[in-house]
Amino acid sequence: MKTSELHYELPAELIAQRPAETRDVSRLLVLDRATGARHVEVFRDVARWLRRGDCLVLNDTRVIRARLRGRKATGGRVEIFLLHQDGPETWEALVNPSARVKPGASVLLPCDLAATVGEVLPNGRRRVAFDRADVLDVLEQAGEVPLPPYIRRERPDEYDAERYQTVYARTPGAVAAPTAGLHFTDEVFASLEHAGIRRTTLTLHVGYGTFRPIQAERLEEHQLDAEDFEVSPAAASLLNETRASDGRIIAVGTTSTRVLETQFQGGAFQSGQGITNCYIYPPYEFQAVDALLTNFHLPRSSLLALVCAFGGTDLIMNAYRFAVQERFRFYSYGDAMLIL
Q1: For position 212, what pLDDT does the model report?
Q2: In this structure, what DSSP letter does residue 15 have?
Q3: Residue 99: CB atoms within 10 Å
Q4: Do 174 and 62 contact (CB within 8 A), yes or no?
């Protein structure tokens, strides 16, 4: 499949720069794969589109304050964007301006945190060693929320610290939010429980590569970055019980989808942890997921490729054009789509 088939025109003003006033008043586009029918709804009413016995699967990763701003001993400004923790004190990171920071250079950061920038790694990354092991704890005071590059603001504010995080975020490690989950509230969860719809969580620490567009001419030439995941025995058991009782598995987001497809083996969901670079694009045949709740994604992205694999390229791209026409809000702080 040509990557160009994932292109669509999006007016800049439809790229959401701020979230909706409250999480669950976001709009919801419901898309029926069997009939092609579209329904424009409000997210807080999502329960009416699901069935008793269905099971929602949510990614409980917690976004860390991955962007650090500091100075070298000479006074030059340096930005360190943390990507992946390799050890108690060492991380892979993006360093800017990388060319001006030689291996061995020290960087003084807020909260008396200091880092030594090491060697150049593949894809322009750098090894960074900190002077203490409790970096994740210090980030809450020293770091900034890593807003996506299409949110055009110089710096995040405390509002972002709350809203660029799901209400059920638990396990720190992501540098981007699992955005389909940003719409959920306690009230929505209560309505789902009242309707007999169950839920469980898994963990996938979303990496910076989620924003990387597909540069290759054909989808199959692209490769995803590996990301850490975990599925608990309790989650796997509930998913298998749901399937056995003819309930549907509703993946909340592309991240949950990739873990579910990774861990569906031998006709059943398996618990476990590891890394996955599961890359889903047409004509992938889904084994684990029956319905998908997701935000609207960038053109020519691996996320859109997954959605097209699930819903069918023509159906999804027509739905995106409809969403543009109806002035839906796009990307991380935007509206959602439920594909049944």
Answers
A1: 81
A2: B
A3: 8
A4: yes
Q: Residue 186: enclosing H or E segment and its boundaries?
A: helix 186-194
pLDDT digits 0-9 by tens, 18-53: 999 999 999 999 999 999 999 999 999 999 999 999
Q: Residue 38 pairs with which residues in a beta bridge?
A: 31
Token reading at 99: 């060319």
Q: Report the half-sphere exposure of 112 (CA within 13 A, side-chain side).
A: 2
pLDDT in tens, 10-20: 999 999 999 99
Whether omega for the bond prior to residue 97 falls within 30 degrees of 0, making it cis, is yes
Residue 34: both structure tokens together: 């069997």
How much of the chain exceeds pLDDT 70, in percent?
Answer: 100
Residue type, position 316, single letter: I
Strand, coil or helix: 180: helix
- The model's pTM is 0.94
Alpha helices (runs of H) in the chain, residue ranges in sequence order = 135-142, 158-163, 186-194, 233-244, 253-262, 302-311, 313-325
Asked whether residue 221 carries a pLDDT value surpassing 90, the answer given is yes
Instruction: Return the percent helix, strand and coil in the chain, to nearest 5.
Output: 30, 30, 40
Distances (CA, A) of 145 to 64, 134, 139: 7, 18, 10
Pairing state of beta strands 55-59 and 198-204?
parallel
Calculate the dihedral angle through the C-alpha atoms of 156, 161, 165, 170, rounding to the nearest 10 degrees: 140
Q: At what angle do helices 302-311 and 253-262 cross, to 10 degrees?
A: 70
- Contact, 16 vs 330, CB < 8 A? yes
Q: Which of 217, 167, 151, 147 is nearest to 58 (CA)?
A: 167
Q: Which residues of 263-280 are buried (b: 16+ CB within 10 A; e: fewer)?
A: bbeeeebeeeeeebebeb
Closest CA relative to residue 84, chosen from 147, 174, 145, 177: 174
Q: Encoding tokens for residue 284?
A: 């992938």
Closest CA to 83 of 103, 67, 71, 107: 67
- For 262-273, what is each residue's pLDDT tens digit? 999 999 999 999
- As given in the structure block, the two tokens for residue 216 are 């290759």
